[in-house]
Amino acid sequence: MDLDPWSLLKASLEGDDSGTSILSIDKSAKKFEIIIKNQAFLSLESGFELEGFLCKKIENSDFSTELIYKTNGTILETSFGKFQFPEGEKNKDYTKFCIKDITTKQRQEEEIAWRLRFELGVASSIQILIQQHSIREGLPQALYQLLYFTEMDSVFFLKYESIDNKDRLQIWVNERKTTKYPLLPQEWQNEDWYDLGLGRWIHKLKRGKTIYLTQSKAMPREKWFFEQTKAETLLLIPVLFENKFLGILGFLKYKKNSPIQQENLLIYQTVSRWMGLFVQRDIDLAELNRYKSTLESLILERTVDLAKTKEELERAYRAKTEFLAHMSHELRTPLNSIIGFSKLIQLPESDKTGKEYLNYIYTGGTRLLNMINEILNLMKIESGQIKIQLTTFRPEDLCRQTLDLVQPQANAKGMEIRFRPPLQSKSLTSDSGKIQQILLNLISNAIKYANHPYVELDCEWIDDSLEISVRDFGPGISEEDQIRIFHTFTRLNDDGNIEGTGLGLSISQGLAIRLGGTIELTSQLGQGSNFKLKLPEIIK
Ligand code: ADP
Questions:
Q1: Which pTM does this prediction carry?
Q2: Most exposed: 183, 213, 345, 444, by fewest CB within 10 Å?
């Protein structure tokens, strides 16, 4: 059989998807001729200017592989290959020239690269969220990162809160890829989305549904949203944590006819699930911090309370010790004189001075008795053993009886006691004996310590509480001594000329407290003092 080599060569080039041809190239003239081409080559070369393309390549002696993007979207790969043809004309080169349709392969590669980029974006934005302490700081950065790697043009996060049964959406993130796209207007966060005609969105989102809308598919009352934002596509994804609606993750896209692929939608939803986790963590942390600070202030308060109690206990302990020390001293002094003068009275010359000694013994004994009575009184008050005997009486009557008792003391000093009864005559239920004891002490102090023609005793009702003031115009008491004088055995300027034990005011204060009242002192040095006994109406 006689085989035609030309047909053989042609046949060898067939049966392949890629287009194959053989060129002869005139090196000096920089011209070429396609000697032979297969069927596939014929269909692939249509639709682009092959002549011009090859001319340029040969002229530049550039035999590298090159991609050609045809207007119909096809991507072609062109390559030159070796073809040995020693019998050919001497000034010519022979080479294979192939065209391959790589559209699918190229698209797949691009898709993989895009997806990798997308996933990288998601991973890095989630990483930002993990690393940041506060979601409010991390979120804008994380979502911007996401935006950068995806097809979306702007992103926002609206934090949801229900205040007084009203939906409130606060803009936490408002980012865009470039400044050519508008941001969400800030005033939207104060608007009621139902009033804006977007209530359907909120309703759906709260039930966990995603909203994916394009301008053409929006309802008439929603259209304004697209007109104002100039966006083509809107994607709203609810941010949830265990079915609790926490906010909305929104994306806008401005490119026309560019739908969001289903797989990408799933990725955006995954991001929103992650966000739910972080937003909830932020809420929990804030709550925890609130608890922590209340706990801290509570501990601080308790510590202060404890320190105060400790201080009070220490003070009470010191006072008791002081009291005991004083008491033994105060008791020993009159006892010494009693014993001393009793001894003297036994001496022969006692006749002359006996009477005088007897007087000393009498005074010493009385002082001792007074002191022991007062100490016992104080002990009773302090140990809570004191009994209250309630009667109902008019305070002005009690004041008058008390005045009768101190009148001799005032007379002895040539002093007058000016009494002002209450304007309103009302009865009081309390322990009249205890009140009298307090008044006796305050009035006799006023007489004892003041050298002024008169002291004042005022009795008045202020609403339902009774106030009895004992006022003198004597030496007064300095501010620093005003608290001290209520402590046991405290006597100011004690030069022994004025009789006293230093127990009267402690007893009076103790009694007033036991009656549910207080004694308040206002005094100024050189001006006089005002001791005010305040009592509620009824003491049970
Ligand atoms: P006493 O009068 O027995 O010394 P008190 O407890 O009644 O004891 O009084 C304590 C001290 O307070 C007195 O020693 C005196 O120095 C001072 N004091 C009390 N009342 C007055 C007053 N009206 N004016 C100035 N000092 C007073």
A1: 0.46
A2: 183
